[in-house]
Amino acid sequence: MILLTGVGVFLAWAMLVALEDIRHRRIPNSLVIGGFVSAFVLAGHNPFGISVNQALIGALVGFLGLFPFFVLRVMGAADVKVFAVLGAWCGPYALLWLWIAASLLAFAHAGTLVFATRTPVSALWQRRSPTMQIAGFRASPYAAFLVIPAALWCLYRIATGGMQ
């Protein structure tokens, strides 16, 4: 029963993060803290079978893994914090694959924006104003791209009986 609670909490958290990022391009700190606390409270009984030690290491690896991108101003702080929370939920070993999947989603999103806005490729290297902008947003909802593969992995584990 507690495993089912962990699945529900994780999927609800992932859905809220994705919705907030897609709609507002901002993720409230309360949502990040709630996900972080839930990951540790449910450690050992979460859908990914992560212990408290693995959750701590995963959170640290997640934070340190994306922090350089934040320093270079390529990524927002919320993206880094969400990746740290995903590290706490999924463990350190899943983070590379989640990052790769999220980056592929972001690449597809950017390609779609270039096509939809009819942006010339030469404009991508100019430093004037935002190159692509739709509905007032110019950034990709990267936190949403991070949680989508994690949620799909969770659902895959449920469907294949991979949870114990």
UniProtKB/TrEMBL annotation:
<comment type="similarity">
    <text>Belongs to the peptidase A24 family.</text>
</comment>
<keyword id="KW-1133">Transmembrane helix</keyword>
<feature type="transmembrane region" description="Helical">
    <location>
        <begin position="139"/>
        <end position="159"/>
    </location>
</feature>
<feature type="domain" description="Prepilin type IV endopeptidase peptidase">
    <location>
        <begin position="9"/>
        <end position="108"/>
    </location>
</feature>
<dbReference type="InterPro" id="IPR050882">
    <property type="entry name" value="Prepilin_peptidase/N-MTase"/>
</dbReference>
<dbReference type="InterPro" id="IPR000045">
    <property type="entry name" value="Prepilin_IV_endopep_pep"/>
</dbReference>
<protein>
    <submittedName>
        <fullName>Prepilin peptidase</fullName>
    </submittedName>
</protein>
<dbReference type="GO" id="GO:0005886">
    <property type="term" value="C:plasma membrane"/>
</dbReference>
<dbReference type="Pfam" id="PF01478">
    <property type="entry name" value="Peptidase_A24"/>
</dbReference>
<feature type="transmembrane region" description="Helical">
    <location>
        <begin position="55"/>
        <end position="76"/>
    </location>
</feature>
<keyword id="KW-0812">Transmembrane</keyword>
<dbReference type="GO" id="GO:0006465">
    <property type="term" value="P:signal peptide processing"/>
</dbReference>
<keyword id="KW-0472">Membrane</keyword>
<feature type="transmembrane region" description="Helical">
    <location>
        <begin position="96"/>
        <end position="118"/>
    </location>
</feature>
<dbReference type="GO" id="GO:0004190">
    <property type="term" value="F:aspartic-type endopeptidase activity"/>
</dbReference>
